Amino acid sequence: VMKKPRQVINYHVRELARAGFLRRAGRVQKRGLTEQRYVVSARAFMLAPEVLGALDVTAGQPATPDKASASYLLMLATRLQRELSESWRKADATGASLPLLSLDTEFGFTSAADRARFAAALTQAITRVIADHTTTPARGCDGKYRLVLGCYPHET
Question: Residues 109-113: what's their mean pLDDT?
């Protein structure tokens, strides 16, 4: 645990309250001082990944990154969050809705070979479906879309 001076913590708490992330929850007398208490103002917060540090795995890397690496998948997730947030803000400002598709499922493999066959078959199937059902953005479509697919081990 990193120790910070009380003044630094107090400054950040006040800034969080000023921004609406915290709200006052009363005062308590403690050892001759009045302690201001706060509670969070939402059930959850979503932080931009940049707040936690850069995840751009392409910086200083070879032209072809390891697309099977955790760092590459995290970089894709970061880009997805940034691009979707920007699109969502623009759509929300105009009252429009975003045409989205989400898929979330869990599955397993009995071996690394099965996992490799699955990856090859899925890549081939998705490539075929994209070719059969889409057009290039230059030929009068309703915008460019990005498909991000990640597969990672998950413990429940």
Answer: 94
